[in-house]
Amino acid sequence: MNAVATASALSLPISLSRPSKFNPRKVKGSIGVFAVFGEDGGSIDKKSTWGTLFNVEDPRSKAPLYKGKILDVNQALEVARFDIQYLDWRARQDVLTIMLLHEKVVEVLNPLAREYKSVGTLRKELDGLQEELAQAHKQVHISEARVSAALDKLAYMEELVNDRLLQDRTTTETNQTDASSSTSTLPMETTKRKLPRKNIDVSGPVKSYHPRLKNFWYPVAFSADLKEDTMIPMECFEEPWVIFRGKDGKPGCVKNTCAHRACPLDLGSVNEGRIQCPYHGWEYSTDGKCQKMPSTKLLDVRIKSLPCFEQEGMIWIWPGSDPPAANLPSLLPPEGFVIHAEIVMELPVEHGLLLDNLLDLAHAPFTHTSTFAKGWSVPSLVKFLTPASGLQGYWDPYPIDMEFRPPCMVLSTIGISKPGKLEGQSAKQCATHLHQLHVCLPSSKQKTRLLYRMSLDFAPILKHVPFMQHLWRHFAEKVLNEDLRLVLGQQERMLNGANIWNWPVPYDKLGVRYRQWRDAVERGEKRLPFTE
Q1: CA distances in angstroms from 379 to 47, 155, 472, listed in the order given
Q2: Which CDD domains would you find in this protein's record (predicted)?
Q3: What is the DSSP letter of 44?
Q4: How many CB atoms are located within 10 Å of the residue 331 CB?
């Protein structure tokens, strides 16, 4: 990193002077500089401008007093944060030194100053300034190395915290009593070596879905896709279902299997609010009761149906055996956004693997290099900042807010002020935004029904551009295909026994919490984690 990059990292402007006329003057020598003059011909005073940029309080007086003490994780994090604060201050001082030396060079080469100094004196002063400048640059590189080391230390501290969250899921059998007594008296370096590695076990063939995972409201279709005389077949938890509208216009969901000869009902048609089997014409209402049996006596026959409701442009079902929850969650985009696209895809991956992928953004500059992350740099540290007991937060340094909404939804708001560039640490700092909803419906052990909704808080005219829906779908499929080839590879290895969550790191926090939430549901815990 050069001096300009260091100044940029400290949020310094490239130009430290106000707009003015300038005349470049070439000078023979080993470095090239130019003198800057204001409109009145005099040099511009930059000290007042620099003062606001570098007048940062020396943090050394506030150093944590832990020298010689055994540190716990929180104290170690406090020390690491102080190190970064001090190194930031030190780096600013180094950059200021370079700026002042540059000003001296300009002053020496000023035509007015040359009138009073000999060429030999000028050369001597320039040689001295070049030496000082070289030392200052060297100090900047040292500061950069210290900052990098401090960031690595902070990342390790966060990994310790992440390990504590996973303390109930470990693959290493350790004697906890002996470990607690021995590590309490060891310095932090020793504790780091002795800490057992903990992980989440997601390996082997996909198990049958636990019945408790069904006791939630699941969105299964967009309202706009379900017309009066149409039906939508789909799978949910390895069972075939079909959705259609009854005579009153309300949606219903019944088993996609005729009670007579097990013919798929979606091969038939919808007549006056009843779905008709194409084999012998039996007709069923939205509650599953058979209303017509042509060519025979009407019998009391019923096929299985699910609670089904429509809310805010989506069709919801309750596939569980428990009584349905009284309220359906809201998945509308934030106020000020307009929905531009609603897309449904059937994907050949288990829904948990797809959720793992959607809840991870650290992979973007490596995976999505030809779509939305084109031009993104690779940060030295990626973090997901979230409350201690929450399933939502924001990414740093990416301007993206993200939330996992149980049981299978991911909502994200992305700042897109400057495509291809990362501006700010929060989406709120950006002028325009894209809001996304991903619903990962568990169709079967290796199949997911994905519902994708995209909204913008700008350019509402795009909603009325012909064929725009096809363009949005093309882009969504292109992004998804970049992920799909990787997730399919994960699934293949998982089925052969590999653990896809073998070694979580700090930026995996949201995905880890999803897995912990899902495990708690399947264990039947009354109080689910991260849901308050």
Answers
A1: 32, 13, 29
A2: Rieske_RO_Alpha_Cao (cd04337)
A3: P
A4: 18
